[in-house]
Amino acid sequence: MSEFFELAVKYLPSLFQAALQYTIPLTIMSFSLGLVFALVTALIRLSQPPKNEWAAAFLKILKGVAAFYVWTFRSTPLIVQLFIVFYGLPNAHISFFANAWISAITVFSLNTGAYASETIRAAILSVPYVQKEAGLSLGMSNWEVYLYVVLPQAARISIPPLSNSLISLLKDTSLASVITIVEMFYLSQQIAAQNYRILSMYILVAIVYAFLTSILSIGQHYLEAYTSRFAQ
């Protein structure tokens, strides 16, 4: 036990530093972009066909693209997506993705967006239609109804599942090690290869992950409490 405590004192600062330099920024950037992809995808899939024939045809194409995007990223493993983007695309002369950070953020954000879009779509559909009708009766446009009536309520409903997506993304960033990003799991592997304390190092990195996810869970609790006060 004393040996494990000594290892914790020696290596936990390095693991937390890796979390601050790599894991947390990767999580924040990927989740932020993922939310943008999710909201756009959800709104496209929920849009009603306009009266204009050409606009309706264009929207139909957009819906098909959005549905294919969601299907693709929900049907394939995240690690396979990372390998395709980081190793496969540069091999196909798309050198932009030879950068590990660009590849990781691209894959994590698109993957998160695919799952979160279904969460947002379900949250929007859960808002009673009578409230949309009330907004329209007050002279609001469709976009104003979505912006001021539907989306605020949908945001409150979607907080728990989106928080789960954020926590999952934080843990999934450990897969960035397979494309050479030295986040904290990769660092723990390097240290374990040097000191041969494999179990102890993996326990230490698990403790760091548990600490970070606990902070996110506490934040989720307070955010739910804050937004729920408007529903009373």
UniProtKB/TrEMBL annotation:
Keywords: Amino-acid transport, Cell membrane, Membrane, Transmembrane, Transmembrane helix, Transport. Its main location: membrane. The chain crosses the membrane at residues 20-44, 65-88, 94-116, 199-219. Pfam families: BPD_transp_1. Residues 20-217 form the ABC transmembrane type-1 domain. It is a multi-pass membrane protein. InterPro entries: AA_ABC_transptr_permease_3TM (IPR010065), ArtM/GltK/GlnP/TcyL/YhdX-like (IPR043429), MetI-like (IPR000515), MetI-like_sf (IPR035906). Gene3D superfamilies: MetI-like. It is found in: Cell membrane. It comes from the Bacteria. Coiled coil: none annotated. Belongs to the binding-protein-dependent transport system permease family. This is L-cystine transport system permease protein TcyB. It comes from Convivina praedatoris.
